[in-house]
Design a protein that fits this description.
Number of helices: 4
Number of strands: 5
Order of helices and strands: EHHEEEHEH
Radius of gyration: 16 Å
Strand order of the largest sheet: 1-2-3-4-5
Distance between the termini: 52 Å
CATH topology: Aminopeptidase
CATH superfamily: Gcn5-related N-acetyltransferase (GNAT)
Largest sheet: 5 strands, mixed
Number of domains: 1
């Protein structure tokens, strides 16, 4: 099966909404105290922002003109000078449709971000992975990511 990586465009939004919804459902199923169960349409403004903001971008993986996966990222800037890289790309989402898993699509999408970083002299790429997602953690370790912090959450909702 041939996979083509192309820039994320408005015509991809509907198929991307379905893929992100699959990912969002997985998050909700694994941590319903943190994630909400929502209709796939709630991600539309997010995707429209990715398409419009000059500091954000995305790539889709196409299999026979069907969107099989998505990665979206943006240029971030740190104002605190203690870091090696004051500008970096942050991957906001990377998701592959359930019928396209284990085909190397996530790796290809990631490589597109790495190539863009190299072309733009960006020295670092960051992302977040949730503690329950052992599969994603293993995937990112294979791509040579290192864990450098952990986000802690306190739910202040009173019983």
């Amino acid at each position: 099966m041939t996979i083509e990586i192309v820039a994320f465009q408005p015509q991809h939004i509907e198929e991307v909404l379905t893929i992100l919804h699959e990912s969002n459902c997985l998050h909700y199923q694994n941590n319903p105290d943190y994630f909400a169960s929502r209709d796939k349409s709630v991600s539309r403004p997010y995707l429209e922002w990715i398409l419009k903001d000059p500091n954000t971008f995305g790539f889709v993986a196409l299999s026979q003109q069907v969107v099989a996966g998505i990665v979206v990222a943006g240029l971030e800037t740190r104002i605190d000078n203690i870091y090696q890289a004051d500008k970096y790309y942050k991957i906001y989402d990377i998701a592959v449709g359930s019928k396209f898993k284990k085909m190397g699509i996530g790796r290809k999408l990631h490589e597109a971000v790495v190539q863009k970083a190299r072309c733009n002299d960006i020295r670092q790429i960051e992302l977040e992975v949730y503690s329950f997602n052992s599969g994603a953690k293993a995937f990112y370790k294979k791509l040579h990511y290192e864990e450098v912090c952990s986000t802690m959450v306190l739910n202040t909702k009173l019983s």
